[in-house]
From TrEMBL:
Subunit structure: Monomer. Interacts with DnaB.
Keyword Lipoprotein attributed: no
UniProt GO cellular component terms: cytoplasm; DNA-directed RNA polymerase complex; primosome complex
Protein family (similarity comment): Belongs to the DnaG primase family.
Protein name: DNA primase
Location of the Toprim domain: 262-346
Cofactor note: Binds 1 zinc ion per monomer.
Record-linked HAMAP family: DNA_primase_DnaG
ZnF segments: CHC2-type: 43-67
Domain remark from Swiss-Prot or TrEMBL: Contains an N-terminal zinc-binding domain, a central core domain that contains the primase activity, and a C-terminal DnaB-binding domain.
Length: 643
């Protein structure tokens, strides 16, 4: 949906940022100067006691000097309410008393359909809640009693029961006038292959409503009462409301509890979340029947900067944790990490709480180890390092893991910690630079690897290196943000590419320019150019660029892409102008002028590289170069001066 010009400015003017933020923070009145629109408070995005979160009411922007969160009123609502851009605008518009502009008919129809599905889900939750009180649900009530789940807890989590009838829900809700198509689209019912009437998807199961961070019911989970059931736990299918890889069970209440200072605990399933919450650990979430995804990890970090992953102490639990480690390594940022709490073997959180009480679980969470400890455990546990070759293999694995970290500061600290742990075992350390870049120590003198000798850094001229690196960033940004391809299509078509991987990816990107859905385009790009794209994303200068480090920030990607393309065009234009000027003067001047012009160009490039100022305007450099060339012609520098 597009908004008319000036709508957002009017919205920001009507709703003071301090009013929006003030609902989530307590202002530090000693530090704030409210008369001048200057407000300070502890940051709502990370746990702290000092007032490092600053709101400038006149400019309409906030900034945290601790976690570096920044933005305007819309960004604040998006991040604190976990909503999209348009939903944030709607929330602020209601507060300001402004009517939202008329929507695109197709977009409005889609939103209305989602609203209908959400209403249907709420009706289903009510139906299943009532069924839990019937005689058919006696076994379910006994199970919940054995799990020590009180009536209040059942009410809080909306737990219900699906009777074992084929069409119990279907008949109840269609009897209220709800269309069968809505029941199927919401994932509550399914159509048989023979085309008959829809049947209930959940039968003979305890029902757990799944709600998004705003509290809307978006799907259901069900635990089978029959031990012979094919699936002990069953989640609803993917629907317009429900994407299981982008949601967390109990996200809304957990966010509220984490905002009050509780640690965010990540458990395995519904009953673990409920048991922990009932024991006082209200900031608890769980993935929805799958391994933790990148989107879920980012959602956890929006709730709390350092979630604690609670693991079963068996081999399967450790394997699951290590998958999370591999997922998280490239995404780590300062103040944003993970800790891992390993439970006693054979016990899940519910078992431990029932056996030893909430205090025992609290001790497990307090003993949670940082992620680097689990990484070290994976690379060393069960291995014998009784030879130089085996120790070298360990060093190689650790280097590979550390180099996956994009943030240079975190990469350095991981290298230091792994080196310390290595010394505890072997009594010697590897050179600091073996794990990370930086520092003043020299690396070990080793023969260059064949792939290094053949690399661009070893074979290409300096300017070509810079151009190839810039091209890599441009192509990687487009691959991760395919919606930008169409916007920059003309500039992308004009790229001059020599690297085979670049050419392969370039063809695939242009082919994907016409795809309407970003996810479809992204999938097609990975399918067609997977190896080339993986090699590109593995390069350090690509991994650390903002558009790759923050794949969810489309506006940042747009700015990075525009900047890189502009710099590339300006650099090539400046080089072409030098070449044309030298060519034009070739018939008029002696070799001395040609040599001096080449030296001037080389000096310019050296100065640019030494300056390393990304914010410089290359357009101004080009204009300055033109003036310098004209001045050299006017002064007739090719005429030899007599002494």
């Amino acid at each position: 949906m597009s908004l008319p010009p000036g709508f957002l400015d009017e919205l920001r003017n009507r709703v003071p940022l301090s009013q929006v933020v003030g609902r989530k923070v307590t202002w530090d009145l000693r530090k704030s100067n409210q008369g001048k629109g200057d407000f300070w408070a502890p940051c709502p995005f990370h746990q702290e006691k000092s007032a490092s979160f600053h709101v400038d009411d006149r400019k309409g922007f906030y900034y945290c000097f601790g976690c570096h969160a920044k933005g305007d009123a819309i960004a604040f609502v998006k991040d604190t309410e976990n909503v999209g851009f348009m939903e944030a605008v709607e929330i602020l518009a209601r507060e300001a008393g402004m009517a939202m502009p008329a929507r695109d008919p197709r977009a409005a129809e889609k939103a209305d359909r989602r609203s209908q599905l959400a209403e249907v889900m709420e009706e289903a939750v009510k139906f299943y809640r009532l069924q839990l009180r019937t005689g058919a649900a006696s076994a379910a009530r006994d199970y919940l009693a054995r799990r020590r789940l009180s009536e209040e807890g059942q009410e809080r989590f909306g737990i219900g029961f699906a009777p074992d009838g084929r069409q119990a829900l279907f008949q109840a809700l269609t009897g209220k006038g709800i269309a069968p198509d809505l029941l199927v689209e919401a994932g509550l019912c399914a159509r048989p292959e023979d085309g008959g009437a829809p049947y209930d998807r959940f039968r003979g199961r305890i029902i757990f409503p799944i709600r998004d961070a705003r509290g809307r019911a978006i799907s259901l989970g069900g635990r089978a009462m029959d031990p012979a059931a094919r699936a002990k736990y069953l989640n609803g299918p993917e629907t317009p409301l429900f994407d299981k890889g982008r949601n967390l069970y109990n996200a809304g209440p957990a966010r509220e509890a984490a905002g009050k200072g509780q640690p965010l605990v990540v458990a395995e399933g519904y009953m673990d979340v409920i048991a922990l919450s009932e024991a006082g650990f209200r900031a608890t979430v769980a993935p929805l029947g799958t391994a933790i995804t990148e989107d879920q990890l980012r959602l956890m970090w929006r709730i709390h900067p350092e979630p604690v992953i609670a693991l079963d102490g068996d081999a399967a639990g450790i394997r699951a944790a290590l998958r999370v480690v591999d997922l998280a390594l490239p995404l780590l940022e300062a103040g944003q990490g993970l800790r891992f709490a390993v439970l006693p073997p054979g016990l899940d959180p519910d078992d431990l709480i029932r056996a030893e009480g909430a205090s025992a679980m609290g001790r497990v969470l307090e003993a949670a180890q940082p992620m680097v400890g689990l990484l070290w455990r994976r690379e060393t546990e069960g291995h014998v390092f009784d030879s130089p070759e085996r120790r070298a293999a360990l060093d190689k694995r650790l280097r590979a893991a550390v180099q996956r970290i994009a943030d240079p500061s975190i990469r350095r600290h991981y290298g230091d910690e792994l080196n310390r742990l290595r010394m505890e075992i072997f009594g010697t350390s590897v050179p600091r630079r073996a794990f990370h870049r930086g520092g003043k120590r020299e690396p070990l003198a080793v023969a260059p690897h064949p792939s290094t000798r053949a690399s661009l850094l070893a074979t290409a001229a300096g300017e070509r290196i810079e151009e190839e690196m810039r091209l890599g960033v441009i192509l990687a940004t487009c691959a991760l943000h395919p919606t930008l391809i169409h916007e920059f299509e003309t500039a992308l078509e004009a790229l001059e590419l020599s690297d085979p991987d670049h050419r392969a990816l370039h063809r695939v990107l242009l082919a994907a320019a016409g795809m309407a859905e970003a996810d479809t385009a992204r999938g097609a790009i990975r399918a067609e150019a997977g190896p080339a794209l993986e090699r590109l994303l593995a390069l350090t200068h690509v991994r650390i660029c903002p558009s790759v480090r923050h794949p969810g920030d489309l506006e940042m990607a747009r700015m990075c892409l525009a900047e890189e393309l502009a710099k590339l065009e300006a650099r090539r234009g400046a080089r072409q102008e030098i070449e044309e000027a030298v060519e034009d003067l070739a018939g008029l001047v002696d070799e001395g002028l040609t040599w001096r012009l080449s030296q001037a160009a080389e000096a310019r490039h050296r100065a640019e590289r030494a300056r390393l100022d990304d914010s410089s305007d290359l357009g101004e450099d080009r204009a300055a170069l033109s003036r310098s060339l004209q001045e050299m012609i006017d002064r007739q520098i090719w005429v030899k001066k007599r002494g």
